[in-house]
Fold this protein.
Amino acid sequence: MYKDNELVLRKIKEDDLQRMWELTFKEASPEWKKWDAPYYEHKAKSFKDYILNKETIVNQDDFWLIEVDGIIIGTVGYYWEHKPSNWLEMGIGIYDPNYWSGGFGTRALTLWIHHLFTTLPLVRVGFTTWSGNHRMVKVGEKLGMQMEARLRKCRFYNGEYYDSIRMGLLREEWEEISSHHVT
């Protein structure tokens, strides 16, 4: 578990599943999906169907939740792009719009990056987003990440083409700036 004042990152418990489902799969077209890879289809599912895969959600090393004042607002996670070379990509979802643009994503990713570099033998962390998600690009910039790739006009959404953007941060860059983020 990691804490920054009222913000907490922690592993998901079985008691959290109802709230997690309400935030992520209860609705067919939740507001957050307009920003989180909206070019991929999202379908609502029943709570019963959601918990069929609870063993992939509860108490996982690669998928944690974000709480603010005890309220679950989102998740952080990672996946291996190529584990033999320690190439990991991370992600974040703040599902409750009431917590957008309040700095919670930056603070949560600061803790998550700290956790990843502290617990895994990584030389780099990164994420992929799209040019329509300006807030995510801003978060990467605030964290000292570099834009490593911009694949032009390869994401089609609402009749318009957007760029795919990869941002990354090397361990030595993080160590240089981390004294400003995590103490």
Notes: The chain has a mean pLDDT of 91. The radius of gyration is 16 Å.
